[in-house]
Amino acid sequence: MIILGVDPGLRRTGFGVIEAQGAQLRYVASGTIVVPPALPLHGRLKVILDNLREVARDARPDQAALEKVFLNANPASTLLLGQARGAALCALADCGLDVQEYTALQIKKAVVGTGRASKEQIQAMVRRLLSLDGDPAPDAADALACAICHAHCAPLAGRLQALAPETLSAGRRRLRTGRLVS
């Protein structure tokens, strides 16, 4: 399974492509889409949309994973990030990809083992998990981490979804964000 991970941002959008065969992960490609700051908002969103479409068409992933928006102290920044995410979602949907979303906490736990991991720790673990020669750029590392998180979580989520009808009918359990809760 080839997975495209995306770390959306209005200034820099990271992307990372990995191949997952069971527990084996293999690096395919990664990079950063740098958006010219002089462009108006609609032009910046179009740069993200067009470049992610091109990445998806070149890499031909089977699935995509996207980092969810976190809430800032600054609501305007959160709204702008949401618009960048929207452009990324549209690009991935336009390429016919199934997109799963993960919070930064979920990604950090899946890759580093703690939700309080630093950027440097994420870069180091991505380098180690994918057997890279050096640390990837921060935005590309975040996108690769998102893809790794999906590679680890998707098989379990699929099994839970398959079990959901019989498990959920047995009592007060339900699925919430890919977890079985009572």
From TrEMBL:
Transmembrane segments: none annotated. It is found in: Cytoplasm. One of its GO terms (cellular component) is cytoplasm. Mg(2+) 2 binds at residue 67. Gene3D superfamilies: Ribonuclease H-like superfamily/Ribonuclease H. Pfam families: RuvC (PF02075). It comes from the Bacteria. Mg(2+) 1 binds at residues 7, 139. It catalyses: Endonucleolytic cleavage at a junction such as a reciprocal single-stranded crossover between two homologous DNA duplexes (Holliday junction). The keyword Disulfide bond does not apply. One of its GO terms (biological process) is DNA recombination. InterPro entries: RNaseH-like_sf (IPR012337), RNaseH_sf (IPR036397), X-over_junc_endoDNase_Mg_BS (IPR020563), X-over_junc_endoDNase_RuvC (IPR002176). Homodimer which binds Holliday junction (HJ) DNA. The HJ becomes 2-fold symmetrical on binding to RuvC with unstacked arms; it has a different conformation from HJ DNA in complex with RuvA. In the full resolvosome a probable DNA-RuvA(4)-RuvB(12)-RuvC(2) complex forms which resolves the HJ. Belongs to the RuvC family. This is Crossover junction endodeoxyribonuclease RuvC. It comes from Castellaniella ginsengisoli. The gene is ruvC.
